[in-house]
Each structure stands twice: as structure tokens, then as C-alpha cells.
Design brief:
The chain has about 260 residues and is mainly alpha-helical. It has nine helices and six strands; from the N terminus they run αβααβββααααααββ. β5 and β6 form a beta hairpin.
């Protein structure tokens, strides 16, 4: 029953989403709870139902009425800022491989993401990548494989035990509030997991998590969605740059123009 967001930022609940998410986590830790409550009861009931029809229906299925009840909320995995490096037409460094949407690093967002930017990435860059793939294709490329490729589907089932381990590790060690000691522990554990006997998809899943942990450990500042408790402020002198990761190489800096 007590508003708490202004303890963490003077803008309260209207602060940027990463700040509000961290405030929820910090308050949950302070009060030893698993979630906080969202209260919309001060708004007109008809407005709430019309403005949030899908959420309203979903909550009803769980026995919660947006217009009357306090709603338990907790931060969850959201958008990744970064991804596969592309040009403005979705081309990657690998010929024939294109990336668009939230998997890509196109440059339309910075260290934090606005909701509308995801739509821009999906619609604009999806269309551009498709057009580029069509333009780049040629008869020679189509004839490169003369025999059908056979896939062993068992190699592409994500191991659920490993998935749960990675999710738990990423939430506690590489989550909304990051520290060097946690990130180092995560990198070590994820490195060990990549050496386990798992299929290719599972190894890819673990490798992606390790790359994220390594990038978060490397960036010793806070910027947008990346928050380091041990380096709480942005540092434009040292860190106004992107980080690039590539097989067999150390993380390298790419200056921002």
C-alpha cells in the first residue's frame, strides 16, 4: 500500500523502464519479498478496460481484475541492447547471413531501448534484409549445394536442465544490478558449461549467455540497461563505445561517432 519508486528516482514510476525495474528489485530485496504490487484502482475502470483489453483479459484468467485488485509484478527478461552486427540492410560479416529485429545491432537504439524502436527494427530492417537477400542471391549461390542437407533434430532440442541452470545464473549474477564478483563467477560457470557434453543448440545457448556476461564484466560503467553497482555512473571518456565480440578474439572497442 505504499508507493516506493521515488526513493530511487525523483520521477518515480515515470522514470525510464530500467530505473523502475531496478527500483522494484531493490525494494523487493529490502523488504524480503518476491514482488511488488501495481495499483491502477485510481483510474476510471472503463478507461483501464479499453486501454489494456488483452492484459485485462489475461489477468481475469488468473482471478485478478485490473480495475479493482493490486497486481503482483516483478521484472522479467526484456529486450537485449546489441546483438549481431549488421549494415543498414541487415547484412552480417558472414556472406548469406542476414539479421533483423532485436537480434541485430543496427544502430537505431543506444544503451536503452524505447518500445517503438522494436517495431522499427522488425518492420523496416526486416523488409530491408529481405530485399538485400533477394538482391544478393544468384544462380551460382543456389547451386552451391547439390544434395539435400539432412538434419539430426535431436541436435537442436534445447536441454531443459541446462536452460534452467543458465536462466537461474543469469538472473542472479548477470541481472538488473551487476557486480564484478558476480559477473566473474558467471563467466567461469558458463565457460565450464560450454565444455559439457551437450548438443549444438544447447552449447549455442550457453555461449550466448557467456558472451553477455563477458561484455557486462568488460564495461566498467553504467549506461542505459547495463547497471554496475560497483561503477554506478556513465563514463564518456572511457566507455562511449560499442563492444564487439568475435570467435578467437578479445573484446574490442568500436568508437561511436
Amino acid at each position: 500500500g505504499e508507493a516506493f519508486a521515488k526513493r530511487y528516482d525523483e520521477r518515480g514510476e515515470l522514470a525510464p523502464r530500467d530505473i523502475v525495474a531496478r527500483a522494484i528489485v531493490a525494494e523487493a530485496r529490502r523488504t524480503n519479498r518476491h514482488w511488488m504490487f501495481l495499483d491502477l484502482t485510481h483510474l476510471n475502470a472503463d478507461f483501464v478496460r479499453e486501454r489494456f483489453p488483452k492484459i485485462f483479459e489475461t489477468c481475469l484468467r488468473y482471478g485478478l481484475d485490473l480495475t479493482k485488485d493490486l497486481l503482483p509484478v516483478s521484472p522479467a527478461v526484456h529486450y537485449v541492447m546489441g546483438g549481431v552486427r549488421t549494415d543498414t540492410d541487415g547484412r552480417t560479416m558472414l556472406p548469406g547471413l542476414y539479421a533483423a529485429g532485436e537480434v541485430a545491432c543496427t544502430g537505431v537504439h543506444g544503451a536503452n531501448r524505447l518500445a517503438s524502436n522494436s517495431l522499427l527494427e522488425g518492420l523496416v530492417f526486416g523488409a530491408r534484409a529481405g530485399a538485400a537477400a533477394l538482391m544478393d542471391s544468384s544462380p551460382a549461390l543456389g547451386k552451391a549445394e547439390s544434395e539435400p542437407v539432412k538434419f539430426d533434430l535431436s541436435d537442436w532440442r534445447l536441454d531443459q536442465r541446462t536452460k534452467s541452470r543458465v536462466q537461474e545464473l543469469m538472473w542472479w549474477k548477470v541481472g538488473l544490478i551487476r557486480r564484478a564478483e558476480d559477473l566473474k563467477a558467471a563467466v567461469d560457470e558458463l565457460t565450464r558449461m560450454t565444455e559439457e557434453k551437450v548438443n549444438q543448440r544447447t552449447r549455442n545457448f550457453v555461449t550466448l549467455a557467456r558472451l553477455m556476461a563477458e561484455a557486462a564484466l568488460w564495461r566498467e560503467e553504467s549506461r542505459g540497461g547495463h547497471f554496475r553497482e560497483d561503477f554506478p555512473n556513465p563514463d564518456d571518456q572511457r566507455w562511449r563505445m560499442h563492444s564487439a565480440q568475435q570467435t578467437g578474439q578479445s573484446i574490442r572497442a568500436i568508437k561511436v561517432d
